[in-house]
Specification:
heterodimer; A: 288 residues; mainly alpha; three-stranded antiparallel sheet; 12 helices; 71% helix; B: 201 residues; globular
């Protein structure tokens, strides 16, 4: 037993070292991308400038963080993934397999995720959790709303970019998907405004990877139906699906069947969490 | 000459992105409450489609043929009819459904979006053979900034909203049209060989 395992340990250690080196390299490329740096700077400016006047609505800065870290992060991750495609005949014969390289690319999502966490802390500093702009949600639910609007999109956007880069050859796929997702968020928001108390519409609204939970009107702040906690679960399931779909490219044998099985489980969990998100929380829109 | 130059264009990209734009714009026409937000997305996609019209995978060969950049660009500009016609179709559908939009301003915004994508592609084409993807992404980010980031919408607006007191989009698009015309003229007349090509022995 010892004899059988002994040679495997150095190999596993070398594999981990290779992965760490690759992940560090890709993370550096992502963090130094000028578009991502501009997005981070713009987020900081929007947060800082937003709190100078009287704050009546949190949706502006929230959306900015999701768009800049999630949306722009997706574009950058897609470029990063596609940038090596021309070198695939050379890179493909190195001892590092495609799934390991994909996993290293997925690790870059930790950069915007960390930026999202910092943004959340800054947001809580500028817009304290007891503020009435958060609507009728309880303080823990308010935190869940913010995590779902700032932190998780920052993680999920780049992961989606990696998955897209692995599977789609069209170089404009990322910005087309970015616009389609934006369109979907806007469309389901319009439906929510028309039918705020409908459960199917709530499910549709929360089916987007980014969703608003409140709206500021003249009458006050309206908190829409839906559970922020289950929505967080739905978003995390989407992140897991994005990683698994990205890893599926170039995998063969037992690992492939294991990934497909994991995808099935994650997909089922995502559907259940989405239904719970749409039917949980307030049963109707609450204006305070 | 016009036939082969047109046939060599990146038609799948141009028509594909235009098709997606029609779907998004169609949703805007069907759901009037979301129209003023979905139409800018539709127009940004049309601008991105326009950015693909100058893509030339065989630029290494094509750029040294006797057909000059002015003529090639003029022929390829015919492909702009696709995004322009698609945008006009979306606006027509919205008008038929009774949407109350400032139509001349919306038409100007459509022309401005498409021309912006094409002009940016013309400028980038002096440096690379396939500027579509990079230019499309850049144009989309610029055009969508006012729609997605409310702080920017306070200063500049890229789509005319009916009956509110925000900044008008017309001055923006007249300026863009003028700048684009100049940029296209300069980039086409003074087009050099792409830099990477000048290193080829």
């Amino acid at each position: 037993m010892t004899t059988a395992l002994a040679p495997a340990r150095p190999a596993a250690g070398a594999g981990r070292a290779t992965f760490a080196a690759l992940a560090a390299r890709e993370t550096r490329r992502f963090a130094l991308n000028p578009v991502f740096l501009a997005a981070a700077g713009l987020t900081a400016y929007i947060l800082w400038s937003g709190q100078r006047g009287t704050v009546t609505d949190i949706n502006g800065p929230n959306t900015a963080a999701a768009v800049l870290f999630g949306g722009v992060g997706m574009l950058v991750a897609f470029w990063l993934t596609r940038s090596m495609s021309a070198s695939e005949p050379v890179v493909g014969v190195t001892p590092v397999t495609l799934p390991v390289r994909t996993a290293a690319l997925c690790a870059v999502a930790l950069v915007p995720f960390a930026c999202g966490c910092l943004t959340l802390l800054a947001f809580l500093h500028f817009y304290p959790i007891g503020d009435p702009v958060y609507g009728a949600f309880s303080p823990p639910a308010r935190i869940a709303v913010l995590v779902g609007q700032i932190v998780v999109p920052s993680l999920g956007g780049p992961l989606l970019g990696v998955a897209l880069g692995r599977w789609v050859r069209f170089p404009g796929a990322a910005f087309v998907l970015f616009l389609l997702l934006s369109g979907w968020v806007i469309l389901v928001m319009a439906l929510t405004l028309a039918r705020p108390d409908s459960a199917p519409v709530a499910v549709l609204r929360l089916s987007a990877p980014f969703a608003l939970f409140t709206l500021h009107l003249d009458a006050g702040v309206t908190a829409w139906r839906g559970s922020p906690w289950f929505f967080l679960g739905w978003q995390l399931a989407l992140c897991a699906i994005a990683v698994l779909v990205a890893l599926l490219r170039g995998v063969e044998g037992r690992l492939r069947s294991r990934i497909i099985r994991a995808l099935g489980i994650a997909g089922a969990a995502a559907v259940i969490l989405l239904l719970l998100a749409g039917t949980g929380g307030f049963t109707h829109a609450v204006t305070t | 000459m016009a036939g082969p130059v047109l046939r060599a264009g990146a038609w799948p990209a141009v028509l594909g992105v235009t098709g997606v734009a029609v779907v998004v714009g169609g949703c805007g026409a069907v759901f009037p409450a979301a129209a003023t937000m979905l139409f800018p997305i539709c127009f940004a996609l049309l601008a991105a489609a326009a950015a693909f019209t100058l893509d030339e995978p065989a630029s290494l060969v094509v750029d040294v043929t006797p057909t000059g950049p002015v003529r090639r660009t003029r022929i390829r500009a015919v492909a702009l009819l696709a995004p322009l016609a698609a945008g006009a179709l979306v606006l027509l559908a919205a008008a038929l459904r009774g949407l109350a939009l400032p139509w001349p301003a919306a038409g100007l915004a459509l022309a401005g979006n498409v021309l912006l994508g094409f002009a940016a592609a013309c400028v980038a084409r002096t440096r690379t053979g396939e500027p579509g993807a990079a230019v499309g992404a850049a144009v989309v980010l610029v055009l969508m900034a006012p729609s997605l980031l409310p702080q920017i919408a306070r200063w500049v607006r890229t789509f005319p909203a009916p009956g509110d007191g925000g900044p008008s989009s017309d001055p923006v698009w007249w300026t863009v049209l003028a700048v684009c015309a100049v940029a296209i003229a300069i980039s086409v007349s003074g087009r050099r060989l792409p830099q990477w090509k000048s290193r080829v022995p």
